[in-house]
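Lab notebook, design round three. We kept the backbone fixed and only want residue identities now. Task for the bench partner: fill in a sequence for the structure below.
Input structure tokens:
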């Protein structure tokens, strides 16, 4: 079977660092979200350690994501054909992929998730710093800190929901996960799901 290169080694290492840090930052943050999740502190050495580690894990995730952002933002720029794809997406959910407009490296759903991740991470960083005791929180007025806590929690919820959709889609579209594990996809996968990208990397040869 002919395979096409979709991600370089560096892209994949970067992606899995972000995914690992997402799980660590997410679990340590959720531990403080509601008492029902407090048991998660057991994973990080107890309450005080979880509280100390969470912001550093969050900042590490943000920095790693900046690396991914620089690698992928150009490919996620919204084009006119993406609006058309998004309008017709109910057909895709019914399983009629053949009725969808041709897709480049990423479809409109993937692009939307990419920008959702980017906005959420900026909001998490900015708001997280505003109530990061004992380092920065004292520099911000109390009202601002209260708003920051709510925005931080809402952004975390959006990021986690986005990640669930992202992971579900990666598994649902068979043959996608290997793009991020081995770096390659089959030519048939590319032709079916990303025909314009297929033509670009093969020089249009089918
Ligand atoms: C980007 C850098 C980040 C910083 C500086 C940061 C900082 C903080 C701080 C200081 C707290 C307060 C803990 C407390 O005293 O109760 C917190 C809570 C929390 N963080 Fe982060 N965080 C960051 C990223 C993240 C990320 C990436 C996630 C999710 C994947 C996340 C999810 C949460 C959640 C769910 C809470 C609990 C919010 C609440 O109780 O209202 N944080 N964060
Ligand atoms: C832990 C489970 C995860 C799995 C199984 C997974 C799987 C994948 C796969 C298979 C791709 C390639 C899709 C394609 O080339 O069409 C991909 C791309 C990507 N993933 Fe993940 N991922 C996970 C977590 C995350 C997390 C937590 C983030 C960030 C918050 C993330 C951000 C990205 C980005 C930015 C891309 C490039 C797609 C684009 O730029 O639109 N992934 N992922």
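Proposed sequence:
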């Amino acid at each position: 079977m002919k395979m096409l290169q979709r991600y370089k080694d560096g892209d994949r290492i970067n992606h899995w660092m972000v995914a690992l840090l997402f799980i660590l930052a997410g679990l340590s943050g959720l531990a403080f979200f509601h008492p029902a999740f407090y048991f998660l502190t057991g994973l990080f050495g107890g309450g005080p350690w979880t509280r100390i580690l969470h912001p550093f894990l969050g900042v590490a995730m943000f920095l790693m994501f900046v690396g991914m952002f620089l690698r992928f933002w150009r490919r996620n720029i919204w084009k006119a054909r993406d609006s058309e794809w998004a309008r017709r997406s109910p057909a895709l959910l019914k399983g009629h992929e053949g009725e969808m407009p041709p897709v480049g490296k990423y479809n409109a759903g993937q692009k939307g998730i990419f920008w959702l991740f980017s906005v959420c991470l900026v909001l998490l960083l900015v708001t997280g710093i505003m109530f990061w005791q004992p380092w920065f929180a004292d520099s911000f007025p109390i009202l601002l800190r209260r708003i920051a806590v709510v925005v931080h929690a809402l952004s975390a919820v959006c990021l986690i929901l986005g990640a669930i959709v992202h992971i579900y889609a990666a598994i649902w579209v068979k043959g996608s996960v290997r793009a991020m594990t081995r770096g390659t996809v089959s030519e048939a996968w590319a032709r079916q799901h990303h025909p314009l990208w297929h033509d670009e990397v093969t020089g249009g040869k089918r």
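Keep this in mind before ordering anything: The chain is about 65% helix and 5% strand.
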